[in-house]
Amino acid sequence: MKNSRISWKVVTAALLALVLAAGLFGSAALPLQAAVPKLDTIRVGLFIEHESYRTPEQVVTLSSDKGFKLGVRTPAGVVNLAAEGGATLKASLDSYGVRVLETANWSEAKAAYDKLQSLPSDRAYIISRSKKGAAVYQVYYGSYAAKETANTAKAKAVKATGSAQAVLSGPLHWSAGTYATAAEAEKQAAAVSLAGADADVVLTPDASGQAGYSVWVGGEADEAGLAAVKAALPGVALQPADTASAYLIKRVDATTAAAGVPHYFSGAGSQKTWLDGNGAGIKVAEKSNQVYRGSMEISRYNGKFALVNELPFEEYLYSVVSSEMDGSFPLEALKAQAVAARTFAIKKGMKYGIAHLSDSTTDQAYRGMLREAEIVRQAVDATKGEVLVDKSGIIGDPLYSSNSGGQTADASEIWGNAVPYLKSVASPDEGAAKGKPVWYRVALLSGETGYVSGTYLKKTGEKSAAGLEIAASTQGGVNVRILPSTDSASSPAVAQLKDKERVTLLEQVTESNSYSWFRVYDRAQMEKLLAGAGVKLNGPLQSLEVSKRGPSGRATELKANGEVVKVKYPNDLRNVLGGLPSTLFDIEEPGRYTIVGADGKPAAQTAGSVQVIGGTQAKPQKAGADLFVMGADNQVRSVASGTASFVIRGTGNGHGLGMSQWGARGLAEQGKTYTEILQTYYTGVWTTKE
């Protein structure tokens, strides 16, 4: 059934009432508009710690062409605390860590920093201070919720740098007073620093909701550290700092240059620190310098640093659709992608507690403003608010993948259970392989087989006794590879052709690509993959076969040595076999093939069981090592018993459920509208507005 938002607009209220009263729609009545949630802004987790998704980070470097406003978010709104005219600042949490080194020499500090950066996961940074009237540089490592974790990190830092100065740092401070202006606070901080203490200007909301200024001294990990700081400043009145309320500590970060940039440390309790780029995009260096619309929020979530990007929902889709689908695709395909992506985001809700979605393909790829294309903005604007619904309301998972290999998956093939709107349908995905080079599977005179790029072969016009074409190499040193691919890591050369060396052409294929792909594993590699997936083999691997397939032809069951390989979901077979692009594949086993007898029944055979008889022979003889068979499609392959590799041939890239992006392109090129594309891939759906 195809229903559109426009057709509903022309139905008068009276007519609609009559139709409903007459029960013409029955149980399949279209859901009311109110049943579809509305989303004005979206929160995207750029760095977040969650049980189902982790992207750890401890310090971020943010840039905006128009500077920043910084504040804290409260139930009543954002309290602005600071304005930075400079283009770049750093931000992190006021947490436990390690102060590895303090030195008057920036180059020495940078050398220690470089050593710490070689350690996995945790971040190092350099803080510049004035102490006793001279500049010093402090090298810090890590940011942790617990002192015990910092203590473990300390041992790693000492080992990496050899520093004898390493001590724990932390979120415990003294207050040296509160001041009416930033200038007064800076003057007091400078005075305390002359005594040799670490003193910082701290921004806090005052009773009227405006910015207040304090001076805090020290950054200690325990009460003993605080006591030592107080003892070193007998002439300064110190009170415990109020770290339970919101605050921002402002320091100077000299990690990349001695002059430094502002580095703000946020309170690490329930505080939410807000950063706004004054209308300009915000670049995040730790996200490959991607630039994002909207604002940023920093907090501690599940004990770790979190950075969330909040922006208008429809503007988020500009980036998602541009990240998920190439801007060169037809407008109608891009519209279909926009509706699917919008539906996906709305249906997921606040998936990660403090964020609706992540920026990864775990949810939807979101790569910021730099990926946006003008035609994509047109597609999003043209479908503004439109989502996919069926008779139950907004659909649960409007999934999509790069290409489905010519046939989309049925939900039962991926998850093991049926979903009404995720049925297997034909999909015009061939465009994903368009323009890829031609390769040939060849047999050398030595009996060896492999793949050669068609660029380096010229057909001679001759044929073998079996009717197969003969070709000759166009130059010397031409690689014969195990797969039709120039990637030497996955497809190393097994031989090289001499100039004009003749080969027999067994098969013509397209270079391995996202639509039609090849993988090869020797017996030892395949045994290792199976063992890694928890498969126990009784002896060496002798056979590996697809034992069951679903409606689209995808593998849903695999047997190794006759035993079923157990997985939670059928789609997990991709991971068992080394991360295959899809489950739409066949396995060529070494020395095995299937023949159809005169009675029409298939029978599995091994090369060692085959006997052949030549034209001059009176009796059949056992086949040798160089045995080739030709199928009904006139394709030839080696089934020699000496072959020790499992060749996996497949099509498609992704789970294959729902919309195929390349298929959407193909349908758009056939003249289909975005609603027709969506209704091709999602059974029994239509579009409606939020």
TrEMBL record:
Residues 90-170 form the SPOR domain. GO terms for biological process: sporulation resulting in formation of a cellular spore. One of its GO terms (molecular function) is peptidoglycan binding. One of its GO terms (cellular component) is outer membrane-bounded periplasmic space. Transmembrane segments: none annotated. This is SpoIID/LytB domain protein.
